[in-house]
User: Fold this.
Amino acid sequence: MHFKNEYRRSIDEYKSAVPIKRKMGFYWILAVLRIILTLIPQTGYIHPDEYFQSIEVISGDHFDIDVNKPWEFNSTFPIRTVLIPQIIVGIPYSILKRLSQYTLFYLGVSLKSPYFLILFPRLFMCCLSFISDYCLYKICYIYGQNYKIRLIIYASSYIMLVYATHTLSNTIELVLTALLLYYTSCSMAYSEKVVVQSDYLLDKYNKAKSRIEGLKYYKLKTSLPPHSLNHCTKIAIITVIGIFNRPTFIAFAFAPIFFWLQRGLGSKCIGFGHFHVRIFTFIICGIPSTVFFILVDSFYFGYLTIAEIGNRDISMNNFVVTPLNFLRYNSNTKNLRDHGLHPHYLHFIVNVPLLYNVLGIIGLHTFGKMLYSGLKAQWLNLPRIQSVVGLMMISFITPIILLSIFPHQEPRFIIPTLLPLAFLYAPNINQTSGVDTIACIAKNNECRNTFPTRNRMTKLQIFWFICNIALTFFYGFAHQGGVLPLSSHIATELKAKPDLTHIHLYTSHTYSIPTALLHLRNTKKTYVSSENHRYKLLKDFYLYEEGSKSIRDVCSIISLKLRECEYKYITKKVPYRLYYALPATDLEEFIFILNSTNLFNYHIANRFYPHVTVEKLPFSKVIKNIIYLTNLTTFSIEKLTKIMDNIFEAFQQFQLLLLRIEYLADNKHKNVHILWKELL
Assistant:
């Protein structure tokens, strides 16, 4: 019985410490806030990809409408898989179509409006985002760490409140990375227990004084559960999904897969044979899902058909592998130049502080200290390579280094590193003393004495919450925040206008309008009437996005289009409405040009608040106010009123204006031929 008691005692020594049950009220408030912000919905427009790589791609497959599919989904050279957008957007839209039938029949309300077309996919994304919260909780629970402060910091990040609820492929990366880290952490913790027990029993077997005692230890060793291939299939499938979603997912999957492969190496019972078996099994497990993605894309983009399969007329040209096309496209620097080239240090210097503020700075500072310790050969200051701290540190720094190789860098590319950052450094924001939290985690110790017992927030916590509140408002509501309300306004006008009226909309210095939200009638499809006549619907909406062209050039283009529309109205009786949407910061220049050229009339049809175009900030107004304030020597009611007026005028700049453009009254009665001559 002696060896049995000793065996049980050895197991107990290596059981992970179970964390204390904690009150999670504040976290649940943040979770509800995430859902509320999704329902409002947020009008902030992070990047055109959130619509043009998801909603704009799938809407045409589910609704009988015109859509503007982006070049990434061009059938001649597709670089994105269609399967993931079909899940993320297609499933919510299938639900929306069914519900819309009932709401239209019983309530007279159609759900096919811009609000619901945005809401349903975002609610689906919001639900997926909570998977990453659960993964963080489980990792903390497995390793006996304080999950409360980590979940609060994680859920209060504007990345989770804004990015994680938008239909971005990077949000899918965030969830998949969290799942990979969870399954890897589970496998590491389980393997560590089994390996320690196996080594202990092997040592006892070798030291057994009798054959009977040795046989008992051998039986106990062989009764240990298998652990070498734990979660292999799940990790392989997640990795394949991530690579087809964005091939850059390799950067985020590298650390979890490496740590999963090298679990237990160096122990008496695990050798390189196990390492090779794991690699081989991992590859085998990933093949079915890879083939499935290739087949779905090949059918969708028309490379493979049922007829070709029936005739057995199949070659390698019948299959499309979108990740390979993605890598081929992005390996060409000329292609990346079209999207913007950035310095290689941008992620480290700008994007990490912008995304994570205090958390990111602590992470980079700690990595710098570890790098210095490594260069000085101070190995004891570094975390164990097979520890969860090592996993999280490599999962944070490796993707940033690898993605910094590419010259095109945007903050959203590295948002999956939030979870390892929160696990490692969230307690640093909450603690008041200088105790090394990473060292505490490595020793499976919560360092309970390092956390303040009072309810007062630390300065770092205050700074963290202020930054995230400000950035939630900026990216969730203000950044290009007028584009979606403009889309809703145009969608309403398209429904209310007379059938024959054409609407022309010009935009400049704003992000692209997702036309799928307008539900434009399908003018590419041939319809059959009850008399068996074939016909096509005429196009009645025209969008002209002028991007960053100068206001003078845009005004000239609008003037030409206005004359063309006026000519059609006079000769063919085609009524029209012409609009121009521009940031309020451009209005002053617009008025100056009209006063000097007298091209057309205009009036403000609508205003959309708040709207911030970063490329067109009202610097002149702000500088003018600062100079005025610095020159003040005395204050009076009149001067205070002027200051307030200037501040109000500066705030008025943060809006998107919709201008109704009209032909000059003096030119209304011109001869048709003169008008046509001017047009030519």
Remarks:
- The chain has 27 helices and seven strands.
- Residues 1-17, 445-453 have pLDDT under 50 and may be disordered.
- The beta strands are 502-507, 526-528, 534-536, 541-545, 576-583, 601-608, 656-662.
